[in-house]
Design brief:
Blueprint (H helix, E strand, L loop, with lengths): L5 E11 L2 H10 L4 E6 L2 E5 L8 E5 L4 E9 L2 H13 L3 E8 L7 E6 L5 E6 L16 E9 L2 H11 L3 E5 L3 E5 L6 E2 L3 E5 L5 E7 L3 H13 L6 E5 L6 E6 L5 E6 L3 E2 L29 H6 L13
Parallel strand pairs: 1-4, 5-8, 9-13, 14-17
Antiparallel strand pairs: 1-5, 2-3, 3-4, 6-7, 7-8, 9-14, 10-11, 11-13, 12-18, 15-16, 16-17
Amino acid sequence: MNERLLSGLRSVEIGLADVPAAEAFFTETWNLSVAAREGGVVYLRGTGADHHLLALHPRASSQLLSVTLRASSADALDTLARNTKTHGGMVVHARSPVTEPGGGEAVTVVDPQGRVLRFVHGDEQHSDIQEQRDRPSRLAHAVMNSHDVAAVQPFYENALGFRLSDRTRIMAFLRLPQAAGGDHHSIALADADNDCLNHIAFVMPSMESVMRGGGRMKDAGYAIEWGPGRHGPGDNIFNYFVGPGGFVIEYTADVEQVDDSHVARGPQDWKWPPGRLDQWGIAVGPTPRLKDAQKQIAFAKPGDPS
């Protein structure tokens, strides 16, 4: 198994019909800030080092364009490209300079079920890192649906170097190897009848910020679709919302940190009493609206301008 080819989740690139409205939401309500603009695309950052966490591209309809992870080295980019071909994926763009804001070099691939993944190295990082109350710092994870998790999970493990942290009845939680400890999962694959985006999670500095964020969203007219609660796998606090363009977004905090000694648990280890969906058992939802939104936004085909 390849280890430490990737060091973290950097950003998610999305397409939606009304970029100005989405920018207003993500800056005024979700509490990101603009890192750059170029060619009608808006790049939004948190308070951490990543150049941007979200890129808003103008499209006729909502699409998931790519999920970008940071490679551990320049050589890792070449290894990831080779591994992709070996394990049933396709390389869309070989290692080359990134021309968009943030820079660096990148490789773009498609996994065996059509998900577009980018691996970047040497990209710009911000020096003005400062944890701020009620503002997201970075991405925690991206969860993607799969019509056959068992078929695609080996690609993430054998080609990209992910490891299984936990397997529940409905989801495989995958982490990046970290000798000193890292997030319980950066990618999760959810059992579904589709291969759409499930949700994108943003790290908040504390439970207080997750709760205050929920109130701020409600004040802006965005209902809490699931939460507040505390998950089992990952042990993280959550509030879920349906944001602009129908994208499901999560505020989270207290993500469990695990190291290479972590032993994966199975569905038998994650059973709640009847009617309970998290550790606390007080969360409202997930609502029918949330469940519907979690199966609506698919990956665009690489190079598709629509």
